[in-house]
Amino acid sequence: MFVRWSAAIAAVSLLSGAAFAEGAKPTDPQIAHSAYTAGVIDIAAAKQALDLVKKLKVTPEDNDISKSLSKNAAAKLDELAKLKGADFDKAYVANEVAYHKAVDGALETLLIPSASNAELKSLLQTGLKIFQGHEQHAEHVAAELK
SS3 letters for 117-134? Predict the structure, then answer.
């Protein structure tokens, strides 16, 4: 199933890249739907990760990384809630770029190298490719909003 998601995300990334290359500027409704779609995809990937955790009989454990992610997300949601229109769009997309860079960095330098289970490591490596694609997409959107 994760491979199907990866293929779907890759296809969306390619299509999105082609649209941006042609100079199409996304509208607010398109941006909103893109954000929604990315969220749905992330939720599906998280479900698959939780399924793997159950299969491996591992109990997720809160840690400094997860606490930092949660804290930063709550602060960003508060900040974004105060914005509207183009200001919201720009701040949202800038956050998406920064968030994906942070997650990519954590995956590359800490999480993947630290994983001892081969299935978990493989899932994280696939997740890294997906997040790198999300980061590129967010960077394209950010460039269009300038």
Answer: CHHHHHHHHHHHHHHHHH
